[in-house]
From TrEMBL:
Matches recorded under PANTHER family: MULTIDRUG RESISTANCE PROTEIN MDTA (PTHR30469), SLR1207 PROTEIN (PTHR30469:SF33)
Domain Multidrug resistance protein MdtA-like alpha-helical hairpin: 103-184
Family: Belongs to the membrane fusion protein (MFP) (TC 8.A.1) family.
NCBIfam families (UniProt xref): RND_mfp
GO cellular component, one term: efflux pump complex
Pfam families recorded: Beta-barrel_RND_2 (PF25954), HH_MFP_RND (PF25876), YknX_C (PF25989)
Compositionally skewed regions (Polar residues) per UniProt: 390-402
Organism the protein comes from: Heliobacterium modesticaldum (strain ATCC 51547 / Ice1)
Keyword vocabulary terms for this entry: Coiled coil
Official protein name in the record: Secretion protein hlyd, putative
Coiled-coil region: 82-130
Amino acid sequence: MVLTTACGKTDAPATSAVGAVTSVKTVPVKRATLTSTVTLSGKIEPIESVNVVPKSSGKAAGVYGDVGQRVSAGTRLIQLENNDILAKLDAAKAALAASEANLERAKAQLEKTQIQLDEAKRNLERQKMLFEAGALSQALYDAAQTNYDSIKKDYDMNAASVASAQASVEQNKAAIRQNEVELENSCVVSPISGIIASKNVNVGESLSASTAPFVVINMQTVQINAGVSEGDINQFKPGLDVDVRVPAASPKPFKGKVTKISPSADAKTKTYPVWVSVDNTDDLLKAGMYAEILVTTQRLENALTVPSDAVVERNGQKVVYILDGDKAVERKVSVGKVDEGITQVTEGVAEGEKVITTGLQALRDGMAVREEQAKPQERAAGGSQKAPRQGQSQDAPYITNR
């Protein structure tokens, strides 16, 4: 009878009653891809979160949004009472029309005076020439000068009237613009496209620029903020692809990308803040969900590997036992990376050789052994199962590629 034990302990060698041959199990040395993975954790956050704040104070005449509603940038959420603004706007428009009419009249009068002034100037110049030639009396010359001075005074007054009328027009235009801004501000809109996350307003309530009646979040893309230790931070670069597991949303991992890395460690956690963005067009991810970020920091292709349980230590040297015909041959090995129950062997074994995985503590170099034949279900399982993790039985199936 053969007795075996499991529960993560190395199996005792099974021996037959005749010849004391040890029965063992083997796994071939295979090539596999080994990875180093850093696991981080954080919470799902919206890529944008905006408090919708009124730009002016007023009473809510209409409320048009509710929690969970999708909105576009510019969607009206609140209408403040604006009757007084509309009245002021109408008054400013009427004042503008009156001031523009007054400006036109002032310009017409100025043009008329300009013509008169030009004629008076030409007459004065003629009279001066005649006076200097002795062909005109002083009285007539003085009369021409007085006429010119009088018309020039009228011209200056009319020019001032035009300037005043123009200023009045500009003032009324400014009043219209101000009232139009106030009218626009009475309509409170969403500044971004997203989903209304919270609502704290009802019709008739008074609002001010210090209140936030709505919060709108953009969840088309989400982000996760996690802390990375100083030993791992240099493995992170903007643009690095990562896997993100969110158990509450899906059993399948999401694809993410590192977007930002802080150059300074957090004073409390002593870790470096890193942000990862994840596409959420399927709307599966919700703000506040727990997420794990899996970052492959190193990848070793085509490595010779054996199950970690096949490597034991003899006199301070790591060894494996190779099945050579009907004997167990002790082989010194050099090992490299260890990844989830798989150990890289850098020296000492060749691809295809069979390493013994059971009864290792009792094996000795040259001991007679007999290979157990795999059961049908074990052969069918083949490499489709995961490699044994630390603490699993050495009889657990061994996978070569992950």
